[in-house]
Amino acid sequence: MNKHFITFFISLCGVFSQVQGQVYNYADGEGPVSPDSVKGFYFGLNLGVYFANNKTANFYDGFGYSRDGGKLGFTNSWLNLAIQGSPQAQDRTSDALGGITADEWRFDESDMPLQMTFGGSFLYGAHVRYMFNSDFGLFSEIYGTNPVTTGQFTIQKQTGNPLGNDNLESFGIRGEEQRLLITLGIHRVLGRKAATARGKTPSILPYFDLGFNATFSKFEANFINLGDLAGNVDLTVFFNNQGQFTDAANVLTGAGVGGFAALGMQITIGRKFTIDLGYVASFEQINLGELNQRALQSQIVLKAIYM
Description:
The chain is mainly beta and 307 residues long. It contains five helices and 16 strands. It has an eight-stranded antiparallel barrel. A two-stranded antiparallel ribbon has the order 1-2. α2 (78-84) packs across α3. Residues 8-33 have low confidence and may be disordered. It has helices spanning 2-17, 78-84, 87-96, 192-197, 227-230, and strands at 26-27, 31-32, 40-51, 105-106, 117-118, 120-133, 136-145, 148-157, 167-189, 204-225, 232-234, 237-239, 245-248, 253-268, 273-288, 291-306. The radius of gyration is 26 Å and the shape is elongated.
């Protein structure tokens, strides 16, 4: 999916690079102004789509984790307990399979999800920038996103076929996470001097960003869907054999550091307002329990900036 967005963004940049616009770097009634006159603080809104790396998605594959954050084995896994960990769980699973009895289905480690994948998630936050001139500045951002990962697990309906050709029923599993990112970087606009030397007055110019980020992660949810009859089952709460609530999963949080680079087009609208449309590649460290992974994440962003 990311490759399609990158291809689209590069094509869009190519179209924008051919556009020649009016110089919007004017004070009211005063004519053109020097690039240095735009120095100062800018504030803005950062919106976009965040693509989490699938390298950390299997943290939500149903095995679950112990109180100290270590991954559990199959027998004590959250998914196994939800499927067949108590008579109530077995009855619920039988209902999900159409009302067959517990001895007519089987669930083992081979039925656990093989691969969880993240989809794109909405990104939102605040941006503050100090520009030394129209083409160079420092900025900081704080923004959040809620990545969601999905996958499938199976339950084997035993047909009694001596060849072992049992029917597999597939069900969905979902994990939800919160991420808060804080960035510090430089912003550099390119091509203004070259365009001016050719007598052009562009309002659309390429830019790049470079910097560091801190990523704060929080485990949010993990549940399965057993169809219309049984519905959603929260994997993070546990019951005894009498169906009484006994415990809930420890909510894991963690923090890590990384870096990022961005490439995009800056569109100037009026003397004090710009829109940045860009692609960001960030190398982030994700910490949750014993999970400690560094992976490349991607973002498509739109920043509306006002001085």
